[in-house]
Design a protein that fits this description.
The protein is built from 6 helices and 11 strands. By secondary structure, the chain is of the alpha+beta class. Helix 2 runs parallel beside helix 5. 33% of the residues are buried. It has 2 domains: 141 residues, Glutaredoxin; 43 residues, Antioxidant, Horf6, Chain A, domain2 (Antioxidant, Horf6, Chain A, domain 2, 2-Layer Sandwich).
């Protein structure tokens, strides 16, 4: 079954560069960015892992763990991590899941059930659908999914912005408008009545339309 926003992120046991994990236990009460790769030793993915290593402290400030997945064994990952640091200057300190049997890729609907049971002999081209970013909340529900082609490096500054937006919605019942940036005005979600809005936002708001109420971003 295809995964959708609002679904429970599937739990799994896997080997990682930090040792074995049970995903939900590892996640605990944190947010999580789980991002996947079709193959080790690929150039675009190398740039992504290196950049995210440098950005990781910003995710940690927001109680968000980072974990990668690549369709290769952990032994290959460890060699690749050395390449990543040499090529990008980013020291990867987050775990990278070994998915040599394709189990997690299938569980997260990134490969079909008939894709086989081993990464051996597979190429980035026939793993190309393993290129998804999953944003997962402390409630273990999928909050967002971003899917990229192999040729386009992901924008992890945008993933950080998306995390900020989702956390504001979870904490304050506000939504963020197009191209919103941290500190800019936000929108009171339509499900919040004016009565509840007066309690939540006593400083008031601007009504653009009856369904469109703009308020200063709440403090986080």
């Amino acid at each position: 079954m295809a995964l959708r926003i609002g679904d429970v992120a599937p739990d799994f046991h896997a080997e990682t560069t930090h040792g074995p994990i049970n995903f939900h236990d590892w996640l605990g009460d944190s947010w999580c960015v789980l991002f996947s790769h079709p193959k080790d030793f690929t150039p675009v993915c190398t740039t992504e892992l290196g950049y995210l290593a440098k950005l990781q402290p910003e995710f940690e400030k927001r109680n968000c763990k980072v974990i990668g997945l690549s369709v290769d064994p952990v032994t290959d990952h460890r060699v690749w991590l050395n390449d990543i640091e040499e090529a990008t200057g980013g020291h990867v300190d987050y775990p990278l899941i070994g998915d040599h049997d394709l189990a997690v890729a299938k569980l997260y609907d990134m490969l079909p059930a008939d894709a086989g049971t081993t990464s051996e002999g597979r190429t980035a081209a026939n793993n190309q659908t393993v290129r998804t970013v999953f944003l997962i909340g402390p409630d273990k529900l999928i909050k967002a999914m971003l899917v990229y082609p192999m040729s386009s490096g992901r924008n992890f500054d945008e993933v950080l912005r998306l995390l900020d937006s989702c956390q504001l919605t979870a904490e304050h019942k506000v939504a963020t408008p197009v191209n919103w940036k941290e500190g800019e005005d936000v929108i009171i979600v339509p499900a919040v009545s004016n009565e509840e809005a007066r309690e939540r936002f006593p400083e008031g708001w601007t009504t653009v339309k009856p369904y469109f109420r703009v308020v200063h971003q709440p403090h986080r």
